[in-house]
Amino acid sequence: MQNDTIHLDLAELTLEGRAALVSCGQDVKRGQRIAISSSPGLGDLHSPVAGKVEHVDPFRIRIKADGEGEVEPVELNSLKGEGLLAALRELGADLPMAPSLNTLIINGVDEEQGIGSRRKMLASHQPTLERGLSAVQAIYAPAQTVLAVLKDSEHSLAGTASVEIAAKYPSGLDPLVALAATGKEAPEDALVLGLETVFQAGRIMETGLPAMETVVTCGDSQFLVAVGTPAGAILAKSGQTPKDRDRIVLGGVMRGTAASSPRQGVSKKTSAVMLVKNPTPVALDAPCVGCGQCVQHCPARIDPSMITSYAEFGMYDKAEAAHIDSCFECGICGYYCIARRPMLQYIRLAKCELAKAKAQAGEEVAQ
Question: What is the pLDDT of residues 158-203, one digit of tens each?
Fold first, then answer.
């Protein structure tokens, strides 16, 4: 794995539902907490550079790297259980609450073809992963820990059993990995953690500093980069230059999102930065033609055509009744849609609006 040699003049960090703790013009140290999370499974956000906050809005924080100083390391070795979980979440690890856990599943399979970040972590960062694994085992105290790897893989982690996953999309997505590991769909006593989350925990335990790095695939290489590194800088490091009408995708081509500009920074969840050359329209403002292709190919066995139609017209309660929560956002429905409808985008929109409605209802009850 190539190490981070990308100099950061400007870091742009996506809030992803977190609340900003800083304001424009404020000086920050490297490692300072700049946003707090109230979402389960989402850690707090920290500045990867020392500098001055240049921009804050509900979606992002931009920091110009022109300062000095770093936060003091934190001692975590004496913590365990809920105390360790709270500390790691505050330091940026994306760890959820999971009571009554029987099986801890570490997903070491890259979610899409063309991404090799998890494979490279297994090959190049074994000590960090094992330190992180010890930490998450101390938190969740599972009866068994399973590592999911590609079929015929030589990689393993001490203290885990292995389950082999076929190299066929979408077999590497968390719900299908859980099914392969436990024989059950959506097991209530199992938790799936992506390998990058174990890596985050390991880096925090090793350094005592917040999680400020992520492993990103770009082209044929994997880079260890600071969170907030502009996508354009990572593309340049891999020898790629976007041109007019090209699209920069954060993540894989099936489940990723288009970057608003080459300046947009990668998040802790960004597994890849991909450059799609002069793409044809990937989605059109077209009605469903009722071909049924999305229903036939949906691995969750729901009706994407009906759910996305509900979402299109703001009928989110009906989308929920049609089991939108069972969708694990593989993007296959959009791939097979002959009308080229934005299927995955409609689903994500409906999920977001439903989450907002539930949060608002909770606030009203609390009042």
Answer: 999 999 999 999 999 999 999 999 999 889 999 999 999 999 999 9
Q: How far apart are CA 50 and CA 40, in angstroms?
A: 28
Strands (E) located in 77-143? 103-107
| Run of H or E including 197 | helix 195-207
**Closest to 35 in 3D by CA, of 17, 21, 53, 49:** 21
Burial readout 232-256 (b: 16 or more C-beta within 10 A, e: otherwise) = bbbbebbebebeeeebbbbbbbbbb
Q: Comparing C-alpha atoms, which of 237, 210, 239 is closest to residue 223?
A: 237
Domain at 7-72: CATH architecture: Beta Barrel (2.40)
Residues 6+ apart with CB under 8 A from 342: 283, 334
User: Could you tell me which residues come within 8 angstroms of residue 58 by beta carbon, excluding any fewer than 6 positions away?
Assistant: 15
pLDDT tens track for 137-155: 999 999 999 999 999 999 9
Rg for the chain, CA atoms, rounded:
21
- Look at residue 210 and tell me whether its pLDDT is greater than 80: yes
**Answer CATH for 212-279 from 3.40.720, 3.10.20, 3.90.1200, 3.40.50:** 3.10.20
Q: For residue 290, what is the DSSP state? A: -
